[in-house]
Amino acid sequence: MSFKAIDEELMSASGGFSIDQLMELAGLSVAQAVQKTYPVETYPRVLVCVGPGNNGGDGLVAARHLYHFGFKPSLYYPKQPKREPYQRLLRQCENLDIPIHNISFPMHLSASDVVVDAVFGFSFHGTVREPFVEVIQAFEETTKPVLSVDIPSGWDVEKGPVSGSSFQPHVLVSLTAPKLCANHFKGEHHYLGGRFVPPLLAKKYGFKVPLFVGSDQVVEL
User: Fold this and answer.
1) Cα(188)–Cα(9) distance, rounded to whole angstroms?
2) I need a labelling partner for 187 at 20 to 30 A (CA). Which of 74, 139, 178, 179 fits?
3) Any idea of the CA torsion for 118, 124, 128, 134, to the nearest 10 degrees?
C-alpha cells in the first residue's frame, strides 16, 4: 500500500482535501489521543517535538488544540521551514503564547510530563541528522512517556526499528491506516487517527476504516 499515493489522491481534485485540512484533522486526533491517555490534571506539561515536514505540521496543530484542551504545551522546533502552511501554523501557536524552543532540548524534556514525537513521518529515509540526533537519542533514554505521530521518528516505515532509532513510544497514533512498522510497536496504546478517509478510497487501497465512536477523532486498535 502506498501511503504517499493515498495522500496525493486525498489532495487531488477528486479527493477535494487541502494539506491544511488533513493536518488539522490529523493534529486534532493526536491532541485527542494525548487527552484520552494522559489526564491534564496529572500530565499538564506537553512538549511537542516538531520536525520540518508534514509530521511536524501535525504536531503544530496538536499543540494548538492541547492548549485549548487545558494543557500547557510547548514546542521544540529547531528547524523551522519558511514556507506555508508551516509559517501560519507556527503563528497560530505564537498567538497563544505557546513557548517555542530551538536549543537545550534535554532541559525542556526534563520540564515536561509527556512528549509528542512529531519529528519524522512515513516518508523519512536515511539516517537521522542534526539537529535531531539528540532528540531521537533522548527518546531512547527518557523515562517520560512518548507519543509518536504516525510512526516513531526514524523508524523504517516497513521494517520498524533501525540502528540509530529503535525507541519504543508508549503511545502510537497511526494516521489514515497503520503502517507496516506498527507490527513492531510494543507500547501501551495504539490509536488510529485521521477521520477523513472515504470508504471508496479505503476499498481501493485495500484497508478498512474502523468504527469511530460518536465525535471521537481516534479509535484504539
Assistant:
1) 32
2) 74
3) 0
Whether residue 189 is predicted with pLDDT greater than 90 in this model: the reply is yes
- Residue 42 has a CB neighbour count (10 Å cut-off) of 8
C-alpha cell at 167: 525507541
The residue type of 63 is A
In 58-170, at which residue ranges do the beta strands (DSSP E only) sit?
72-76, 100-101, 114-118, 146-149
Contact 52, 118 (CB under 8 A): no
- Work out the angle at residue 103's Cα, subtended by the Cα atoms of residues 100 and 108, and round it to the nearest 5 degrees: 65
Q: From the CA atom positions of the chain, what is the Rg in Å?
A: 16
Q: How remote is the C-alpha of 40 from its chain's centroid?
A: 19
Confidence class of residue 21 from pLDDT cuts 50, 70 and 90?
A: very high
- The span from the CA of 162 to the CA of 124, in Å, is 12
Closest CA to 75 of 88, 174, 61: 61
Tell me the per-residue pLDDT of 153-170, one tens digit each, with 9 for 90 and over.
999 999 999 988 999 999
Amino acid, res. 11: M
Distance CA 78, CA 55 (A): 14
Q: Residue 128's Cα: distance from chain center in Å?
A: 17
